[in-house]
Amino acid sequence: MLSDKTALPIITLSQPTAEVGAQVHRLISECPPLDPNSMYCNLLQSSHFSETAVAAKIGDELVGFVSGYRIPQRPNTLFVWQVAVGEKARGQGLATRMLLAILARSANQDINRIETTITPNNKASWALFEGLAKKLDTQIGSAVMFDKTRHFADQHETEMLVKVGPFKAVQA
Ligand SMILES: CC(C)(COP(=O)(O)OP(=O)(O)OC[C@H]1O[C@@H](n2cnc3c(N)ncnc32)[C@H](O)[C@@H]1OP(=O)(O)O)[C@@H](O)C(=O)NCCC(=O)NCCS
Known about the structure:
With 172 residues, the chain is of the alpha+beta class. The chain has a single domain, classed as Gcn5-related N-acetyltransferase (GNAT) (Aminopeptidase, 3-Layer(aba) Sandwich), CATH 3.40.630. It is 24% helix and 29% strand. The chain is built from 4 helices and 7 strands; from the N terminus they run E-H-H-E-E-E-H-E-H-E-E. The protein has helices at residues 21-29, 39-46, 94-104, 123-135; strands spanning 12-14, 54-58, 61-71, 74-85, 113-118, 140-146, 159-164. The protein has a 7-stranded mixed beta sheet with strand order 1-2-3-4-5-7-6. Strand 2 and strand 3 form a beta hairpin. The longest helix has 13 residues, at 123-135. The structure holds coenzyme A. Residues 31, 33-34, 82-85, 90-96, 116, 122-125, 127-128, 131 line the site of coenzyme A.
């Protein structure tokens, strides 16, 4: 039990299982500007791709989630699909902690680069990956990946490809 009312609740991180898929779906819907995917997609992220995903919980409540996969043509590169932290858990380093937790797994010691996409105005997300590059003592670069007009038929902001790396294996 917490004796100090100002103490932050303990957030535990784990490799997800399909049982968390429905909670992932709810969390993503509460984290604009993330695109909600189908619940079926969230179930696949939490099962087939669980080695490159992480679930953050306070008790039984999901408060953070990272989905990702190894890029098939370049399996040493982790593509971070979505990072979601519920409002009440933000500003405590949780997103950074989740990304580092994926890299620290024994199964992921060969990952030496990260790629993701970020829309130009998502300040929190840029700050997250710039901070991560510093912590991994490496570089960050960006270029257009999916253009608003050319790829999204003007229905979505341009997504910038962000590359972080190369970096050394993260120890658990
Ligand atoms: C982006 C998001 C995941 C950040 O989660 P978080 O747990 O609060 O992030 P962290 O506490 O790990 O912060 C990481 C860095 O970003 C900075 N940061 C976080 N939120 C910020 C904000 N709103 N504006 C500016 N900087 C911010 C932190 O200061 C920190 O910088 P540092 O490494 O130099 O100390 C969270 O705000 C979120 O879920 N947003 C909605 C969904 C989204 O945009 N996801 C990202 C798309 S991939």
